[in-house]
Amino acid sequence: MNLKEADKMYIGNTFRRYDAVFKKGNGAYLTDVKGRKYIDMLAGVAVNLLGYNDADVNRAAIGQIKKYIHTSNLFYSPYQVKLAELILRNTGGSKVYFANTGAEASEIAFKIARKWGILHKRGAYKVVSMYNSFHGRTIAALAATGQKKFHKYLKPLPPGFIHARFNDIKDAAAKIDSKTAAVFVEPVQAEGGVNIPEKNYLEKLKALCARKNVLLMIDEVQTGLGRTGRFLASAYSGVKPDIITLGKGLGGGFPLSAVVVSKRLEKVFTYGDHGTTMGGNHVACAAGYAAMKKISTEKMLKSVREKGRMLLGGLKNIKSPLIKEARGMGMIVGLELSKPLAGALAAEAFKKRLIINACRENVIRIVPPLIIGKKEIGRAVKIIEEALKGMEG
Questions:
Q1: Which of 226, 260, 295 is the last residue of a domain?
Q2: CA-CA distance, 224 to 122, in Å (whole number)?
Q3: Predicted local distance difference test score (pLDDT) of residue 12
Q4: 285 lies in which domain range?
Q5: Is 364 left (phi over 0), alpha (psi -120 to 50) or beta?
Q6: Which of 171, 317, 345, 358 is most buried (most C-beta within 10 Å)?
Q7: Is 161 helix (H, G, I), strand (E, B) or coil?
Q8: pLDDT of 130-170, one tens digit each?
Q9: Residues 303, 291: one domain?
Q10: Could you tell me if residue 336 is left (phi over 0), alpha (psi between -120 and 50 degrees) or otherwise beta?
Q11: Is 379 helix (H, G, I), strand (E, B) or coil?
Q12: Same domain, 280 and 311
C-alpha cells in the first residue's frame, strides 16, 4: 500500500489533495519525492511567511524543543511574553490572548464582545459581520461567516450573527441595533475572493461603531503579519480597532493564533473566563517570535510592497480574454476570471510546477511567502499566462 492509498483508507479527508508528495522545502520552493521543484505561491495557505527552512525559525524551535515542548498555561512562558510584547508594539493593543487557530481567535473575540455587551451595553450580544466573509470553521465562526454554502448542514446556527454587505456603510448601519455588541470585518476578504474595499471604508466603519457604541473587531488572520506590506492591513487606514484577531503565520509554521484587545477591553476577561490547553505553546511562540522579529522590520515590509506591485503588475499585463480583473494589496492578490475556471487554472499551473489556489469558482488567490524572489514572481506570472493561453481554446 502506498502513501496515497493509505491516506484514502485511514484519513477522513475533507480536502481534494493534489497528486504530489513533498520531501523538502527551501525558501519559496517545494520539492516532491520525484525531485520536481515547485514554486509555492500559496505558502501553506498564507502560513509560511518566511518560506521553508528559515534558519532563525528552525533554530528557535529546535532550541525550545530541546528544553521542553509543553507545560500548562498555569506556568509562566518566556516566549509568550516576548511574542506578546512584540505584537503589542506593532499593533498598538493592550493585551494578548493566545490560541491555536484563526477560528479559535474568532471564538475568543465573540466571547469578549458578548461579555462586554453584558457588562456595558445592557446585554448586547449580536455581531454584525459581512457577506462573503470567512472567519473559521468552528460553529460560531461559521455563523459569522457570510457564505451560505458553509451553513447548509449546520442549522440551526448560533443566534445573534447578522450579515451586512461588504464595503457598504449604509447597510452596516441598518443592521446595527441596540442589541449589537460588535462589528467584525476583514480588511481584505481573502477566502471570499480577495475583495478590497474603498480606501476609507474602515475609517467610516470605525466612526459608525463609535456613534453606535459598538466594538470594532478586525480579522487580520490572513491579511496581518506583513502580508499587505504593513504589519496590519488595517494600518493603511490608521484605524485602531477594539479587537484584532491574528493567526496563519504567527507561529512560524506552528499552530498559533492571538487575539489583541484595546485598553478599554483589557479587563473584560478575568480568571476562569477563558482557557486553552495548547494555546501559546512554547515551541510555537519561540518560532513565532523569531519569525515576527524578521517580518516586522521596515526592510521586510518595504520589500513586500515592492514585490506585491511587481506581482500585481505582471498579472495585469497578461492579455487574455479569460481575465476579468487582477487586484491585490501587497502580497495578497486575486485574479478574477471571466468564467468559473479558477480550479482548472490552478490544476494547469500545478502541472507546470506552480502552486496557486482557487478561493472561488472564478477567483485565483495568490499568497506567496513574503521572502519570494523577483525571479520566482516573474516565472509564476509566465506560468499563469501560459496556462491561460492553453485554456482559451
A1: 295
A2: 33
A3: 93
A4: 56-295
A5: beta
A6: 345
A7: strand
A8: 999 999 999 999 999 999 999 999 999 999 999 999 999 99
A9: no
A10: beta
A11: helix
A12: no
